[in-house]
Design goal:
This protein is mostly helical. Helix content is about 80%, strand content about 0%. Residues about 135-140, about 285-290 and about 305-320 have low confidence and may be disordered. One of its GO terms (molecular function) is protein phosphatase regulator activity.
Length: about 325
C-alpha cells in the first residue's frame, strides 16, 4: 500500500553498503528478512534477492556476507515460484572461486536451519560432498587460493555431522553411502596434518551419531515434528503455485472464449444485415414498385376528378339555360 517503501529500502541499503559502517549494513540486512511478510515474492525476487546474492559473492566483510546469506535463504524459503527457486539454487551451487565455496558452506548451514531435511538432501547434499574432491597442498608452501581451499576443507569437516543429521533411513540410504565414501577418501588422501586430525575427529563424531528413521522415535520426536512442519509448508507453497498457474490458465481460457463469442455475435450481425439487404433487393417492386404504386394512385385521382367534372358540366349548362 506504500509505493515509496521499496525505493526507500533499496537506497538505504546502498547507502549502508557505501559507508564504512559495516555493523549498520549487517543489522540492516538482518532486518530485511521480514520483507516476505510485507511485500510479494515477485517484488522481493526482482528488487532484493539478487542484491543479496551479489553481496554474498562480492562483499569483503564476513558478518555482512553471513547476514546477506541468511536473508537470502529466508527469501528463498518464502518464494512461491519454482523456476525462481531453481535459478537461485543453481547460482549458489555454481561456485567458481574458493572464497565463494566458503560462502556456499555458510549458506548451507542456514538452509539446514530454515528448510526441511528433504529439501537439503534434494538440492545441496551432493554439491557439499563434491567439495571433498578438491586437492589441498601443504599450507606452509601454498598460494592464497590454496590457503582458502584449506579453510574450506576444514569448514567442510566441521559441517559433515550436520549434513549427516539431515539423512533419513531407508529413504536416503544411497546418500549415506556417498558420505561414507567421501570420508574414506579424506582419510586416505589427506596430506595436511591439521586437516587429518580434524577429519579423524569428524569420523568419531559421525560414528557416534544416530540417523533418524522415517518412523517416529522418542529421541527425535520434536525434531521430526519441526521437520515435518517445514516440509508441509514447502508442499503448501508448491500447491499454491500450481493453483495460481491453473487460475491464470482458466482466466486465459475464459477471455479467449468471450472473445470468440463476441466475434461470433459480430459475424452473425453482419450476416443478418447482409441478408436483409439482399432480400430487399431481390423482392420485385420493393422500392421501384412503391414509387410506381404512388404514381398509379395519383393518375387514378386525376382521372376520377376529370370524370366528375365531365359529368357535372352538362348539368350545369342545363341549369344555366333554365
Amino acid at each position: 500500500s506504500i509505493p515509496d517503501l521499496i525505493p526507500a529500502l533499496t537506497t538505504a541499503e546502498q547507502r549502508a553498503a557505501t559507508s564504512l559502517k559495516w555493523r549498520t549494513h549487517e543489522k540492516l540486512l538482518q532486518k530485511y528478512a521480514c520483507l516476505p511478510h510485507i511485500i510479494s515474492s515477485d517484488q522481493i525476487y526482482y528488487r532484493f534477492l539478487h542484491r543479496m546474492l551479489t553481496i554474498i559473492l562480492t562483499n569483503n566483510v564476513l558478518p555482512v556476507q553471513k547476514a546477506a546469506a541468511r536473508t537470502l535463504c529466508v527469501y528463498l524459503r518464502y518464494n512461491r515460484k519454482q523456476e525462481q527457486r531453481h535459478e537461485v539454487i543453481q547460482k549458489l551451487i555454481e561456485r567458481k572461486s574458493y572464497w565463494n565455496r566458503l560462502r556456499f558452506l555458510d549458506t548451507c548451514e542456514f538452509i539446514m536451519e530454515l528448510f526441511s531435511k528433504s529439501f537439503f538432501c534434494k538440492y545441496f547434499f551432493l554439491p557439499v560432498l563434491e567439495l571433498t574432491h578438491d586437492p589441498v597442498a601443504n599450507v606452509r608452501y601454498c598460494t592464497k587460493s590454496e590457503y582458502l581451499l584449506f579453510f574450506c576443507r576444514m569448514k567442510l569437516c566441521y559441517l559433515l555431522p550436520k549434513v549427516k543429521s539431515t539423512l533419513k533411513i531407508p529413504t536416503d540410504k544411497h546418500l549415506l553411502q556417498q558420505l561414507e565414501l567421501c570420508i574414506r577418501k579424506l582419510l586416505c588422501q589427506e596430506k595436511d596434518k591439521d586437516v587429518l586430525t580434524i577429519v579423524k575427529r569428524t569420523v568419531l563424531e559421525l560414528d557416534r551419531m544416530e540417523i533418524s528413521v522415517d518412523a517416529f522415535q522418542k529421541r527425535f520426536y520434536e525434531n521430526d515434528l519441526l521437520d515435518q512442519e517445514k516440509e508441509r509448508q514447502e508442499h503448501l507453497l508448491l500447491e499454491m503455485e500450481q493453483l495460481e498457474k491453473e487460475k491464470q490458465q482458466n482466466e486465459g481460457r475464459s477471455t479467449s472464449i468471450n472473445d470468440k463469442m463476441f466475434e461470433k455475435k459480430r459475424r452473425d450481425s453482419k450476416t443478418s444485415s447482409v441478408l436483409a439487404k439482399s432480400i430487399t433487393l431481390s423482392v420485385p417492386g420493393s422500392s421501384s414498385g412503391t414509387s410506381a404504386g404512388k404514381e398509379d394512385k395519383k393518375s387514378k385521382l386525376v382521372r376520377s376528378q376529370s370524370f366528375s367534372t365531365q359529368a357535372l358540366h352538362p348539368k350545369y349548362s342545363n341549369i344555366d339555360k333554365c
